[in-house]
């Protein structure tokens, strides 16, 4: 009798630990039925182990009809808080994505496009696991993984529609807005990089460890005065400094070619970067401060900082909207750029459609943007242009 009570207590404790208070009752009943029919202690142990193996493969109960019943009754504010955009924006996204999807000829494709998109948005907006997202939307883990990357690829194919370099007319408009808001002339956009923390394989850690000591990949972005991305590039090596990432990017390669550079930026236009970049006629950076700056140089740096900080705000907003970017715990690091680029595209879509600076519940924390301030300004044309701007700001 004592052994029987002890065995019952063991089954109850193990099932509760593995499944929780509510879900444990079912597996407890199954286990005890098997044990009570056993004839000896050895058989009892084997039956208990068999029951525990069944527990390991017992699927977590899916959220019943979350997409079909719960989401349609969300107030607009809750819908936007959960999916990071309004219903109107989701409808527009569905219209853009639906033509890119293959015909629904299997059970995977049978799920409606809006459900696939909301599943993807939920994953991007949270740090919830794939299994958790699958349970919420009543899908298997494999189907969820397939759906999400299918949607990510579809949205990525729309990049040129939402992230594009401005025409000459728009460059003039951007410069006018920067000048009105900050006083800095000729600014088409601000350029910077930010580190997206990732889970890197131990065998490949060195190429991902940044100077702050954690593994990451670099997102390079250029944004306008309204925090809209004009250009993005993802480099898979967090160990690379921002100047090197720029050289590797299509934008950097275009700026290194005088003919292509003039197609992007007229002589009077430029980007603003921090001291991680080399000074050129296309990217103006601050004066290095060794304690001997003139009043004019100090004013230049102050106005430059005010104008340049918009890209930091854009990165903050991006990470706050799509919190998956605060740490990408992905087994395949080669898939990370796809996810990051998709978030940038959605960021621009939201700004275009909603004309809003962020979520009602989002506190835009100062996310640390890693920069390298050790590089000196070079390039005669850039130095001369920077001096002209400095003089104009002092007049």
From TrEMBL:
User: Mind listing the UniProt keywords for this protein, alphabetically?
Assistant: Hydrolase, Metal-binding, Nuclease, Nucleus
Pfam families associated with the record: DDE_Tnp_4 (PF13359)
Cellular localisation: Nucleus
Would I find Ubl conjugation among this entry's keywords? no
List each copy of the DDE Tnp4 domain by range.
191-348
Q: Name one GO cellular component term.
A: nucleus
Co-factor requirement: a divalent metal cation
Domain of life from the UniProt record: Eukaryota
- Give one GO molecular function term: hydrolase activity
Say which family it is in. Answer: Belongs to the HARBI1 family.
This one is known as DDE Tnp4 domain-containing protein
Organism, per UniProt? Leptobrachium leishanense
């Amino acid at each position: 009798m004592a052994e029987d009570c002890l065995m019952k207590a063991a089954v109850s404790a193990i099932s509760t630990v593995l499944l929780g208070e509510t879900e444990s009752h079912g597996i407890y009943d199954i286990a005890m039925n098997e044990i009570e029919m056993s004839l000896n202690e050895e058989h009892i142990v084997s039956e208990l182990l068999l029951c525990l193996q069944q527990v390991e493969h017992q699927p977590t109960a899916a959220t019943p009809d979350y997409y079909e019943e719960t989401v349609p009754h969300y107030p607009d504010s809750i819908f936007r808080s959960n999916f990071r955009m309004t219903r109107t924006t989701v409808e527009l996204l569905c219209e853009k994505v639906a033509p890119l999807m293959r015909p629904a000829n299997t059970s995977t494709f049978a799920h409606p496009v809006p459900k696939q998109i909301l599943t993807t948005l939920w994953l991007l907006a949270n740090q919830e696991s794939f299994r958790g997202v699958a349970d919420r939307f009543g899908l298997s883990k494999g189907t969820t993984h397939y759906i999400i990357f299918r949607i990510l690829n579809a949205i990525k194919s729309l990049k040129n529609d939402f992230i594009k370099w401005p025409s000459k007319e728009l460059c003039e408009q951007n410069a006018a807005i920067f000048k009105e808001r900050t006083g800095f002339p000729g600014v088409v956009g601000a350029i910077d990089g930010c580190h997206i923390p990732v889970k890197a394989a131990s065998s490949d850690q060195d190429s991902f460890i940044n100077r702050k000591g954690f593994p990451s990949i670099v997102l390079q972005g250029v944004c306008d005065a309204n925090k809209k991305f004009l250009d993005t590039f993802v480099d898979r090596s967090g160990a690379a400094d921002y100047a090197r990432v720029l050289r590797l990017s299509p934008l950097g390669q275009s700026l290194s070619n005088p003919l292509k550079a003039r197609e992007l930026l007229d002589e009077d236009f430029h980007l603003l970067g921090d001291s991680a970049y080399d000074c050129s006629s296309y990217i103006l950076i601050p004066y290095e401060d060794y304690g001997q700056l003139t009043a004019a140089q100090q004013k230049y740096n102050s106005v430059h900082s005010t104008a340049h900080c918009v890209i930091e705000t854009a990165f903050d907003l991006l990470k706050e909207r799509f919190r998956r970017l605060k740490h990408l715990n992905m087994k395949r690091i080669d898939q990370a750029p796809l996810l990051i680029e998709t978030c940038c595209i959605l960021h621009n879509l939201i700004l275009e459609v909603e004309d809003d600076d962020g979520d009602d519940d989002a506190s835009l924390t100062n996310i640390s943007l890693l920069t390298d301030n050790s590089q000196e300004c070079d390039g005669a044309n850039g130095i001369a242009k920077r001096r002209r701007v400095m003089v104009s700001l002092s007049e």
